[in-house]
Amino acid sequence: MSQLQHYLAIVAWGLSAAALVMGWVSADALPPAWLFVFLLLGTASLVRIAGWFSLWLDGIIAGAGVVAVLVSLPDLSPVPGYYWLALLAAWAFAWLFVERLTRAMASGLVEPGIFGFLVPLIFGVMVLVIWEAVTRGANVPSVILPPPSAIWARIAGSTSTLWADFQQTFLKAVLIGYALGCGLGFAVAILIDRSPFLKRGLLPLGNFVSALPIIGVAPIMVMWFGFDWPSKAAVVVIMTFFPMLVNTVAGLNAAGAMERDLMRTYAAGYWQTLLKLRLPAAAPFIFNALKINSTLALIGAIVAEFFGTPIVGMGFRISTEVGRMNVDMVWAEIAVAALAGSAFYGVVVLVERATTFWHPSVRSA
Question: Is residue 256 a part of any domain in this protein?
Fold first, then answer.
């Protein structure tokens, strides 16, 4: 174990032991069963000083802690001090498990392809658990921050509304605007590469367009294209055009002089050199723009809906429900948008790996 792992093990054990003692001496009854079992396991982890202690045992203790703090919460009112120590102990055991798992994968003791997903999964679960425990245990008003359980209940009870908003914002405005903006940026980059005159004239214009504030552009697009999704798609086009333009132009210049000279010795023309050398060399740059735009497009469409939209859409729902103090619905829309944006980004990454598998940046990923 590394020095950090030793420190985490000591902290996790100390928090468990302190919570167990506090629950034993300060309460009229023992802590709830699940919490008591977790604290006993955490305290018993001190046996690691005698020798080998599997990283999976730390994972089991962390999992028991997650279950304990969630299951025990309804039985504790008001929430005692030992509960917060138990929550910190569960977090410390989860951190210790992730740290040991990461080092085990790096050294080849654990197969990354099978267990690599556990690291982000555990991190996300612990964030949600701490969020749930703090908001419910400290009685945080739902207007300030609702617990994840309330957000999930809202998602489960409003699937038809969320689906309609998703269709309006993502399937229409985002995807269409993304395709048009990226396609237009790519086409203009080819034209700029072909003509030095256009390079001197269009690049400064593209830079100017990218500097336009979205809160100033969105109302204008609404007046030009109406209140429905075309005006939001127009905003997305403006936001995605310049990143694609700049990255494509930079990528087209990435091919080395030796490779270009080789193509000339083969008597290759401009379009042959472009298709067989320069575009493949520019592929990592182009996919960087596509990944950046996959998040910019969703942000642009949602913000644009704040300035005029039909009675449907993610941005419309967020702005409306905030005014009604339905913060759980706002967070439900945020969760759907985050999932959609992450999935969109992931699809672009998968396409990149399938297309540019030969590039060193992909081979080493």
Answer: yes
Is residue 364's pLDDT more than 60?
A: no
Number of domains in the chain: 2
Q: How does pLDDT run across 114-148, given as a tens digit for each residue?
A: 787 888 899 999 999 999 999 998 888 988 899 99
User: For 171-218, how does the pLDDT look when each residue is reduced to its tens digit (9 = 90+)?
Assistant: 999 999 999 999 999 998 888 888 777 777 777 777 777 777 777 888
Q: Are 262 and 249 in contact (CB under 8 A)?
A: no
Supply the range of the domain harboring residue 130. 3-140
CA torsion sign for 290, 292, 293, 297 is positive
> Rg of the chain's alpha carbons, rounded to an integer?
27
pLDDT tens digits, 289-339: 999 999 999 999 998 888 877 788 898 899 888 888 889 999 999 999 999
Token pair of 228 as six digits: 């429905």
Give, as one character, the DSSP assignment of residue 211: T
Q: What is the mean pLDDT of the chain?
A: 86
CB atoms within 10 A of CB 215: 11
Q: What is the CATH number of the domain that holds 331?
A: 1.10.3720.10
CB 286 within 8 A of CB 249: no
What is d(CA 215, CA 147) in angstroms, rounded to the nearest whole number?
Answer: 31
Residue 353 neighbours by CB distance under 10 Å? 14
Same domain? 257 vs 339: yes
Task: Give CB contacts under 8 A, 24+ apart, made by 121-128.
Answer: 122/62, 122/94, 122/97, 122/98, 123/98, 125/66, 125/94, 126/66, 126/90, 126/91, 126/94
| Alpha-carbon distances, residue 60 vs 20, 67, 229, 277 (angstroms) | 18, 11, 49, 52
Query: Last residue of a domain, which of 84, 109, 140?
Result: 140
